[in-house]
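Might I ask for a little of your time on a matter of protein folding? Here, with my thanks, is the record as I have it:
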Amino acid sequence: MYEEAIAAIPLLAKAVISLFIVVDPLGNIPIFISLTSRMSDTERKRTFQRATITGAILLFFFALLGQQIFILFGISMRSFMIAGGILLLLIAVKMLVTGEWEESGESPESVGIVPMAIPLLVGPGAITTTILNIRIFNLTITVLSILIVFFTVWVILRFIDPIYRLLGRAGSMVISRVMALIIAAIAVEYILNGIQGIW
């Protein structure tokens, strides 16, 4: 049992890293700051908490029922990889070009869910990564990776102001664009793997 747990650590690390890169809480810091700039401290904390909880619940849902939903609607993993890759690529391109997600006139409750929880934290890439992790690793590792990633997201959002001051706007924008470039590469990989699976 002990040896199995030790052997699972590298697999868990891979699952956590792949999901963390796609969720990209550090790259989203400038967007989260701008979305909550007019909120009070209480509203901001409540919004961040709602975004974290909503995002984690969504990924747990897809981890447990994602494949069954695909079977129900007759969707193949290859088709989902291509569609998810295209959507993820569009999001990455928008982030590379504009560096921000423009939203206005939204209540704290709705901002915490859309666009913060979905699609900024939980987009097609995070959903695809979660479902793929179940196939590559197993359900236990996938669930643990979601818990670890969203606990990290919660910590980052909890201390978002000092982190933003440390990085500065320029540093945050650099991280955002680097992460967007990595996400774009992951999206292209999803598309190519989906096409390769079809052929």
Observations:
- Residues 101-105 have pLDDT under 50 and may be disordered.
- The chain has one domain: 24-198.
- Residues 160-198 form the longest helix (39 residues).
- The helical segments are 2-23, 29-35, 41-73, 77-98, 108-121, 124-136, 139-158, 160-198.
